[in-house]
Amino acid sequence: MSSINSSHHAHNKSIADPIEDRLESLAKKDQWQEVAGILQKRAPRWIDDGQGPGLKKWLERIPEELVSKSPWLLFWFGIVLLPSSPRKSSPWFEQSFALFERKYHIIGMFAAWSGAVDAILYTWDDLKGLNAWIDKYETIRKYYAWIPTRAIKARVAASMFAALMYCQPYHRDMEKWVRRAVAASKSGLHPTQRMLINYQLVYYFVWMGEFSKACLITQHVSKEAAFGEAAPMAKITSSLVEAIYTGVADANVDACHQAVARGLKLAEQTNIHIWDGRLLGQGAWGELMQGDTEAAEHYLEHINALLNPERRLEYSFYHNQRGWQALLKQNFPLALEHTREALKLARQVGVIGVQTINHQALCLILLEMGELEQAHRHVIQARDLGRGRKSGLFQFFRHLLLARIWFERGHNSQGLNELRLGMEMGRQRGYRTTPWWHAPSMVQLCTRALEAGIEVEYVQELIRNRNLKPPTPPLAVENWPWPLKITTLGGFSMLINDQPYQPSGKAQHKPIELLEVMISLDGRSVCQETLADILWPDVDGDKAQQAFTITLHRLRKLLYPVEAIQLREKKLSLVESVCWLDIWEVNHLQKKINTAIIQGKKNETEISYLTQRLLSLYQGHFLSDEASASWLLSCRERLRSGMLHQLRRLGRYWEELEEWETARDIYLCALEVDMLMEEYYRRLMICYWKQDRRAEALALYERCRRILRSRLDIEPCTKTQRLHSQILANR
Question: What number is the average pLDDT over the span 362-374?
């Protein structure tokens, strides 16, 4: 791609040079050899000045017989045709190269070689022809070190890098050519040429997952384009580079859209539309990445209007994004149709990376359709295209796809292994997205990772950064990074985006009280009038509602930026997808425990785990640090009774299994909830007795008798006394 120049912004210029008169004079005398000599000397400057059309006019006037024997005239013919007609430029470069090679003309050979490569690249069609020129380089590579000018070396480096990137990204010398392309981007080439090299480098580094390298180049490009004298083409290319980096590496949709809009506006102002399709494609990428299929439609319609049947690679990209859009809409047959067409076109043009992404996309679609065998075949084909080499973002995506396949097949250990490899790679490289980002899949995988303790901090940050929301609140996932976490059992506390809430004065008392009252009424669909009556019982209706509105506004400001409270049809609710509430979790755990108990003995491990979580949550009575206001007493008693009932059921469950130690621990916890519940002393005495710990059982009876006397002025009931007598007699 290195040979393109600033002719885009000077398309209608003629050669503004005093030599024009001299050329006309020689032409009238048919002294075309002299004309050719002047053109060969002046051509580089005219090209750099954007005067390609004027050079083309003079080249066309030279007799064909003379041009066909001059490798430099053939070369410059190719150069002037390259920006607008790359297909037509190819034969000129091929003839030029053949003549230079015959003469062992080193500079000419490499200049023509670079032009021939760029001519194929610019077609965006059958890039398989690049493979022949990559092979051709092998025959002349020994001369590369002898090239006397840095400019030619830079152009060759840029062309070879681009050719390998598209057709042989895993070539043994790829890293060497990457380094040479980076050096070329800092060389003395024309600024627009350097900008184009940087575009290719950022594109490569982003998809290889080397974000730090892409970041440095993007920052450099932005600074260079910011200068007032920067060419419009360079500024538009800079916008495209920023859109690629921010949209993929940063997963920053807003920044991506700003860069796209800036580039398209510049294109409209300068009438330079070479990058319109790529800019629109990045805009569509940004919308699809956040799941907005309707907004993506705007970009895709514009892309469709620009498509050229002779540029099959553009069609492949278009069908790929249409497939992604259809997947997000859950139109799986349409997604398959578009993506298979994208893969077919990518194979026809010979671009490895595009084939890889389409194989992985097909795997994802087929997974959603439940076609596991077909899905597995496509992910393996994607791997084989990489020939076992590390491929950054594609490899990250492959691990996640394989994890899903194994989980769907019921092979959890293999699934967890792939998930661990993927999340470890994501943490090390700072990945925030995948090709074909599919939020429902990522929710599943992140949930699995947190449950298994895999890269917990990274996964939590990924969930926050991408705002992943499960279809139902993930109460069972202990490490889920809730934007808002509220604890009420044992006292009130709150975490807002993991930062502890610190009350800063009386101004926050009423909003927090509103929140507490709402929670005491379950925190879901609480009537606005009920809240107003509780909080302002002595205030008239209209004034109470006004006070409610003001207090709710203050509460929302206090919780900002988390949008955790919703008011619909005069009913207030905590948003369950962003808010974790300990009493909701307790209720959820109790239901799971009861289901497991009903299912029988096979769930002992699960019941034990769920019980530990339940006990760790119940740290005391509901809002125990609050005065006993009437509005919280009923909730406090309901939660206390529910907990005691649950512990009774758990204790009996473990007794039936003769797990006396576990049952004992349950009853001890029950007494911590309410030390006056005589039944739990009795059950605990039985556990000690069954373990041959008579002394502890008898001591517990005395403790029970003492507490009941001092607190309630009563004696233990007949059942407890009878049990005490049996233990004394050791019957």
Answer: 97
